[in-house]
Amino acid sequence: MKKCALIVIDLQNEYLPTGKLPLSGIEAATANAASVIADARERGMPVIHIRHEFANNEAPLFVPGTSGVEIQPCVAPGHDEPVIVKNYVNSFRETNLKQQLESRGVESVVIIGAMSHMCVDAGVRAAADMGYPVTVLHDACATLDLTFNGVTVPAAHVQAAMMAAFEFGYATVTSTAAYLARS
């Protein structure tokens, strides 16, 4: 059995209804994420948290030093769990995430977090491109409505399209319940 790590991407206060970029279904996704994190800890599985910050206050959100960049309390890192701060969409870009995985002998990853269509997407594809078998827990991820060229795509459709793309060529996609029920 391959050694697996849980990567928790950007479950930060900024995405809550009180934040600057509220996501559709973020509370349910975070509750599922909390269950997955608890399971990983119980199994002794490495848990690595990712936190997005924009360097030099280049955006009006994810500003360093604000409450918006803090990881939500219900999924807060444990004392021995690394928190990797990233400044780009891809969690591997200009961070030590790959080194963290290698130093723990990780051969596969489970990815949860936000936003499905951005940072989760980039992390899933990068991990797969690096050769890691990836599992995504669709209901422990969240996104929002998107608009392009005058067309608004509801968050549920964005989520379905992202998960279908992952399942097509990048990851195994399953629910939190099915993942937690594995033997």
| Low-confidence region ranges | none
Q: Tell me the total number of β-strands.
A: 8
Decide which structural class fits the backbone: alpha/beta
Strand order of the largest sheet: 3-2-1-4-5-8
Instruction: Give Rg in angstroms.
Output: 15 Å
Number of domains: 1
Arithmetic mean pLDDT: 96
Instruction: Please give the alpha-carbon distance between the first and last residues.
Output: 12 Å
| The CATH homology group name | Isochorismatase-like
CATH architecture designation: 3-Layer(aba) Sandwich
Helix and strand sequence? EHEEHEHEEEHEH
CATH topology: Rossmann fold
Shape: globular
Biggest sheet record: 6 strands, parallel
The fraction of residues assigned to DSSP E strands is 15-25%
What's the CATH first level? Alpha Beta
Helix run count: 5
Helix content class: 25-40%
Task: Note the main attributes of this structure.
about 180 residues, alpha/beta, Rossmann fold, two-stranded antiparallel sheet, 8 strands, globular
Q: Any overview of this molecule?
A:
The protein contains five helices and eight strands, in the order βαββαβαβββαβα. The protein is α/β, with parallel strands linked by helices and 183 residues long. The chain has one domain: Rossmann fold (3-Layer(aba) Sandwich), CATH 3.40.50.850. The longest helix has 18 residues. The model has no long low-confidence stretch (mean pLDDT 96).
